[in-house]
């Protein structure tokens, strides 16, 4: 198993109290697996990705653990995590295209980045150029400033840099959302290629775009209000979802699976609960057409089969 996350709890400290952005998240990722992480805005997708890389100043690791290739990740210990970043776990962050330092040429920036990881630019240059070619970029981009590149080119540069040290786990956070449909497709296909070529072992692709992740993910996990409510092979999530929330997400996207969607999710009636004080029991029940008395209790985790798990009282109805 490449990654095992057990009962992970990560909160944000605010003046009003703790926002429980991850509230008992458990899942595992096999070697070579691409998992898509889907769910409405604010459900905790980005927080989950960041928790496996770097907690920001307001995030607090409250409980649970993540084990990567048999080694527990020192979540919450920024210095210890620093030794793992890029080499073992890497992220293509949200808005990464604009995160490239505008005052540095790409080549110089890469050299600095590698030096900080104790790696030699000269030793890795041939591999870097090879990978740039793979994503359709010439060596010349190393002499460019980020401003001289298009959005799609910058995104491809970031993808190459974040995987250059062959991390075991890559987190790709909304990597396609700022791109046009053609570039979205190219970026999604590149992620799969990087996995197939062994540049990364496994991948978590965070997105609100189910139709996109359906094209590339082996497995889809659906999050709701800080928890994972369903996990299954991508095909199963689309054709036979069991959680009423997943059904609503799929229903909101009639084109899922047919096209790379450029449509945003149509909204599901109602709002997710606030994570400062989430309700007990099933967190979806206030919006759920199937809600019944038992849903006031914590839902059971039901194994539909060995690759399909759902947290719902009504999973088998
Ligand atoms: N710095 C912060 N301080 C307090 N609460 C935060 C902070 N960042 C995020 N949150 C809260 O944590 C929860 C999870 O947010 P997160 O960004 O992980 O969700 P998301 O699913 O990635 O959303 P999006 O798709 O909009 O990026 C939300 O309730 C959000 O309001």
How would you sum up this structure, described in words?
- This protein is of the alpha/beta class and 317 residues long.
- It has a domain at 32-54 and 83-88 and 167-311: 3-Layer(aba) Sandwich (Rossmann fold).
- It has helices at residues 45-51, 78-82, 106-116, 121-134, 151-163, 181-196, 210-216, 234-239, 244-251, and strands at residues 3-14, 17-29, 34-38, 59-68, 71-72, 89-92, 169-173, 202-206, 219-224, 227-233, 301-305, 308-311.
- The strands form 2 sheets. It has an 8-stranded mixed beta sheet with strand order 6-7-8-3-9-10-12-11, with helices on both faces. It has a 4-stranded antiparallel beta sheet with strand order 2-1-4-5, with helices on one face.
- Helix 6 links the parallel strand 7 and strand 8 (202-206).
- Residues 256-265 have low confidence and may be disordered.
- Residues 12, 14, 19, 21, 39, 41-47, 58, 208, 275 line the site of adenosine-5'-triphosphate.
- Adenosine-5'-triphosphate binds at residues 12, 14, 19, 21, 39, 41-47, 58, 208, 275.
Task: Describe the structure concisely for a colleague.
This is ABC transporter ATP-binding protein. By secondary structure, the chain is α/β, with parallel strands linked by helices. Helix content is 27%, strand content 25%.
């Amino acid at each position: 198993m490449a990654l095992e996350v057990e009962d992970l709890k990560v909160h944000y400290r605010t003046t009003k109290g703790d926002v429980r952005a991850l509230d008992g998240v458990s899942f595992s990722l096999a070697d070579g697996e691409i998992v898509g992480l889907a769910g409405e805005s604010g459900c905790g997708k980005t927080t989950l990705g960041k928790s496996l890389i770097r907690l920001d100043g307001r995030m607090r690791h409250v409980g649970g653990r993540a084990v990567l290739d048999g080694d527990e990740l020192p979540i919450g210990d920024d210095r210890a995590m620093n030794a793992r970043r890029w080499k073992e776990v890497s992220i293509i962050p949200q808005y990464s295209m604009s995160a490239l330092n505008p005052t540095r040429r790409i080549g110089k920036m890469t050299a600095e980045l590698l030096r900080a990881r104790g790696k030699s630019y000269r030793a890795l240059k041939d591999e870097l150029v090879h990978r740039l070619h793979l994503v359709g970029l010439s060596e010349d981009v190393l002499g460019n400033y980020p401003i001289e590149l298009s959005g799609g080119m910058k995104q491809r540069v970031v993808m190459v840099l974040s995987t250059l040290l062959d991390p075991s786990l890559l987190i790709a956070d909304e990597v396609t959302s700022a791109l046009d449909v053609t570039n979205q497709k190219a970026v999604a296909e590149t992620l799969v290629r990087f996995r197939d070529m062994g540049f990364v072992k496994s991948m978590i692709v965070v997105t609100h775009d189910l139709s996109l992740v359906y094209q590339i993910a082996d497995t889809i996990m659906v999050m709701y209000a800080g928890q994972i409510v369903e996990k299954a092979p991508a095909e199963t999530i689309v054709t036979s979802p069991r959680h009423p929330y997943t059904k609503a997400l799929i229903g909101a996207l009639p084109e899922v699976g047919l096209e790379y969607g450029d449509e945003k999710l149509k909204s599901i009636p109602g709002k997710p609960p606030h994570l400062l004080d989430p309700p007990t029991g099933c967190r979806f029940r206030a919006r759920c057409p199937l809600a019944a008395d038992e849903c006031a209790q914590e839902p059971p985790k039901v194994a539909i089969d060995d690759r399909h798990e759902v947290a719902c009282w009504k999973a088998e109805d």
